[in-house]
Amino acid sequence: MKEIVKSVVEVSKYIFKRGLVPGKAGNVSARINGEDGFIIAITPTLVSLQDLNEDDIVLVKDNGEILSKGKPSSEVNMHLAIYREKPEINGIVHAHSPYATGFAFSNKKLKRLEGFGAIKSEYIAEVPYEKPGSIELAQKAAQALKEEDLVILKNHGVIATGETIEEASGLIEFAEGIAKTQFVTHMLNSI
Questions:
Q1: Which of 3, 75, 126, 147 does the annotation list as catalytic?
Q2: CB-based contacts of 108, cutoff 8 Å, min separation 6
């Protein structure tokens, strides 16, 4: 468990340094499977991901019971719902990266590009806006991620899943890169 908690801290600091989560935004979690369910190690609420240490990470049982000190991210229900829907994943990263989040707030869709896995549809799936931290957002995001590894949360941000949290953070970084490329393309095409 200590290694998983350490990886949550490392990925959190990494995505902050890469500019994928500003201020106290974003959250990261990893699943720890057990004999009678699972536990997640999740970042706390209202703490910048750059300032985390291992003692800050909150352990939460699959039923929402908090098993350690601290208060988990306000998006803990979204993480739990996604893990319930996707037993094959062990990591989730939710970011507010500038370019991908720009698309989330715009009427432009983010096209899928090579390197994002199999191209099953032209655009990255979007989840209609629901209040951050709400059960409705948790349910809609979990449903959308049943068939996807990453989705855009309209007027909010982006969330990715992976077999590991490193894989999920890699998807967030990739989505930010393609969003940046498409933003530049839109700007050049408008000249």
A1: 75
A2: 182, 186
